[in-house]
Amino acid sequence: MTKTLQERSWEALEWPKLKEKLADLATSVPGKEFCRNLPLADDEATISAGLQETTECKDLLEEEGDIPLAGIHDLREVLERAAKEAVLEPKDLIAVGETLRAGARLKSFFQQRRNVCPLLSRLTGPLSDLNELADCIARSFDPSGNLSDDASPVLRSRRRQVRLLHQQIKDHLESILNDPSYAQELQDNYYTIRANRYVIPVKAEARSRVPGIVHDSSLSGATVFIEPQSLVERNNQLKMAELELDREVYRILKELSILVADHAGEILADLQILARVDLVNSKARLSQIMKGCAPAVNARGRVRLLDVRHPLLALAREDVVPNVLCLGREFQALIITGPNAGGKTITLKTMGLCALMVRAGLHLAAAPGSEMAIFSGIYADIGDQQSIESNLSTFSAHLLNMIEILHHAGPGALVLLDEVATSTDPHEGASLAQAVLEQFVDRGALVLATTHYGQLKALPIRDSRFANAGMEFHTTDLRPTYRLELGVPGRSFGMEIAHRLGLSSEAYRRAKDLLGEEQASLEVLLEDLEKRRLVLSDEQKLLERLRKEAETMHGEYQERLAGLKEEKREILNRSLREITSLVSNAKGEIETILDEAKKDRRLERLREAKRSLDRLENQVRSGIQEVVKDLLPPQVSESSAPLPCRPGEEVEVISLGQKGILLEDPTRSSRVQVQVGQVKMTVGADNLRPWHSRSVPSGSSKPMRSAKLRSTAGRNLTEAVDEVEVHLPRSENTCDLRGLRVDEALDEAEKYLDRAILNHLSHVYLIHGHGTGALKASLRRYLETSPYVRRFRPGEPQEGGDGVTLVELWS
User: Fold this and answer.
1) 71-123 tens-digit pLDDT
2) Distance between CA 115 and CA 552 in Å, rounded?
3) Got the DSSP string for 628-652?
4) In the chain, N or C terminus with fewer CB closer than 10 Å?
């Protein structure tokens, strides 16, 4: 049977071989058939959906492992027999049940993951709900594949009756064998079955002495197998019981077969869906093996394949040389030249297979970012087309094939020609090849062609629709690298390869002389271009290696920087823990001093308590300064000018990023005392600057980062200082007692004065209002007895008048 042009092209590209590789990955017979009959889509939407299905399945495989595809059987023949009212065998019914279970399992699996794989969820959504039929079949058979006693009560009863009769017959046979009166007649002490009847072995000469029916004899004739007369009726009963059992088994299988026949259409439709899921799973596994990805597709004839590899080679091994293939953007035809066995034909097949794979929804063995055109026709003329039966030479066969392709190729077609117009006179062949290529391009087709013709190498110079590409070849050791270099024609290196393979030097030199001066000059020019290209390629590889090394070093630097930040954070946390411990201990001692002062309210005892608190405060401040000393490096001032601040003004401690009050004149000493919150510390004057000028200029990125680090550290330290202030209670110099009962107000006032003393307040305001005057009178009587109070007076009109009492405390 004559093959069509499409079939010949696909075989030349090894498309059937790739489909067979895909079929090997399927788990079911229907799935394998779907792989072998892989349909090709024509429109962009269908193709994109097919690629997305493969992507969803691949992502699912990589995330969760295998998809539950077990249990899918080829039921087409079974369903056909059921439709013809045939009684199905148990194995067939079990296969139906397992397939239905597989469908329900897959539907549930994808429905639970519909957010991550919506297309596969939509694909399995129409699967029928035949769980009742699946359950009925499952109940009817046991794990060994036989009908279960649960299939029907009658079956259970029939089996019980048969087992009982068997046992009765065996018991009777045992009694015969053990009867002494039969000892001389029996050939051996056992019983067996002949013609489905229980019999005993009797000596031939004694058969007349054992009443019964002879069913068989031994080969020697010395033994006859007799059914004892006393067992004939029971054997008959057993036979009848087994017939009844067979009828019940037939009835059950018939009923189940009818149920299957009633749902045959639904089951067949489900089988098609399950086969499609198996196909998608095979596509995803194929992509995993060859490390593929989904390309962008277009109907504009644009091809850009990045790091693409021949799919069959990518499936077989990992060390396949990747290449970049471009077509359709800046040129319509790519002429590939280079040495024999350098990879030209593989490049053609790679392009053709990628064009077919995209239409089939298969990922390409290419890098992300690749783009593939949708070709309506893919035609290839590759390999030896010689036909002895048709009396065609290689040249004639190729020429007829190209002519047929010319009749079909047009806009949207991809034409792949290997060694175009070869096997004839080189000059005629080159001219014929150029004419054919121009015809294809004129008709709007995209073309990849390999050749050794120098005339075709010059074609891109005259016609911008064409471009050159050459297969890389190391001239030093005459070894192909299989890399395709776009824009540069390749040399054939035929003489060099022949010389290396053993051609004599004399013959090699003679061949070089015969090449002709003009051709030799062209070869020299091409050789020079090849050398320069190799140098540039090596430099590019070096730059790429240096870039990767720089990225590695950058990553290591980032890791070290993160480690240093973590170490710094740990140091700060440890310092804060030490400060917290100091504060906690101080709080305990403060509470002890206050308790003692409250018990003994004499003025001298109070002053002693005050001095103790002052000493404790100095100890805490000294401890905090000791902890934070040298924790952060001081910020070196960029200017040697003196600090333009005077004592009492607000400044910023640069290394801490905190506001403080300058306590000493910076013009008299290089180190001055600053109060930050409640902590006094001594710092270098060059570590200070006016608070109003603390912002960092936006034009410098380094000071901004430093300020950010200092600010972070400063915030941590501030939290520590605030911890001191939280444990030493503070308040504003006003206490509002309005709205409280007298006893509540006195209690609140006492607590407030406790805090005021601790916070070194010299004057406080107690707001009690006018009211009936009871609260004011009681409060002032209390103030007269309080050891904290030096004197007090009613407020001035501007202070609130007699509704406020101003209290001066002992300092």
Assistant:
1) 999 999 999 999 999 999 999 999 999 999 999 999 999 999 999 999 999 99
2) 37
3) HTTSSPPPPPS--SPP---TTSEEE
4) N
How are beta strands 804-809 and 650-653 bridged, if at all?
A: unpaired
Q: Over the stretch 515-547, which tens digit does the pLDDT of each residue have?
A: 665 455 455 555 566 566 667 777 777 888 888
- Give pLDDT tens digits for 135-161: 999 999 999 999 999 999 999 999 999
Residue type, 264: A
Whether 375 and 414 have beta carbons less than 8 Å apart is answered as yes
Which positions ≥6 away from 21 have C-beta within 8 Å?
286, 312, 315
Give the CB-side neighbour count of residue 383, counting CA atoms within 13 A: 12
Q: Collapsing DSSP states into helix, strand and coil, what is residue 25?
A: coil
- Binding site per annotation, positions for ATP: 338-345
Q: Which amino acid is at 768?
A: H
Give the side-chain half-sphere CA count within 13 A for 364: 33
Long-range contacts of 474-477, Cβ-Cβ distance < 8 Å, separation of 24 or more: 474/534, 475/527, 475/530, 475/531
57: its two tokens? 């399945």
CA distances from 757 to 590, 754, 762, 784 (A): 12, 5, 8, 17
Q: What number of residues does the chain have?
A: 811
CA atoms within 13 A on the CB side of 570: 6
Judging by DSSP bridges, how do beta strands 333-337 and 466-474 pair with one another? Answer: parallel
Task: State the SS3 of 486-526.
Answer: ECCCCCCCHHHHHHHCCCCHHHHHHHHHHCCHHHHHHHHHH
The CB-side HSE value for 125 (13 A sphere, CA atoms) comes to: 9
**Residue 446: both structure tokens together:** 């995209």
Determine contact, residues 368/296, Cβ cutoff 8 Å. Answer: no
Residue 634, CB-side half-sphere exposure with 13 Å CA sphere: 16
pLDDT in tens, 276-314: 999 999 999 999 999 999 999 999 999 999 999 999 999
**What's the pTM value of the predicted model, to 2 decimals?**
0.62
Q: Which residues contact 334 (CB under 8 A, 6 or more apart)?
A: 325, 326, 327, 447, 448, 449, 466, 467, 468, 469, 486
Instruction: Please report, in range form, the residues annotated as the binding site.
Output: 338-345
Contact 756, 781 (CB under 8 A): no
DSSP letter for 458, please: T
Q: How far apart are CA 70 and CA 483, in angstroms?
A: 43
Q: Which residue has the tokens 């890399």?
A: 483
Q: Which of 295-309, 391-405, 565-579, 596-610 has the lowest mean pLDDT?
A: 596-610
- Does 713 score more than 70 pLDDT? no
The DSSP bridge partners found for residue 660 are 651
Burial of residue 562 (CB within 10 Å: 0-12, 13-18, 19+) is exposed
CA 56 to chain CA centroid, Å, is 11
To which H or E segment does residue 307 belong? strand 303-308
Of residues 32, 1, 12, 753, the one with CA closest to residue 414: 12
- In the chain, the amino acid numbered 1 is M
Cβ-in-10-Å burial (0-12, 13-18, 19+) of 132 comes to exposed
Residue 802 has a CB neighbour count (10 Å cut-off) of 14
Give the model's confidence band at 717: pLDDT under 50 very low, under 70 low, under 90 confident, else very high: very low
Mean residue pLDDT across the chain: 83
Q: Is 640 left (phi over 0), alpha (psi -120 to 50) or beta?
A: alpha
> Starting from the edge strand earliest in sequence, which strands make up the sheet with 650-653, in order?
679-684, 671-676, 658-662, 650-653, 688-690
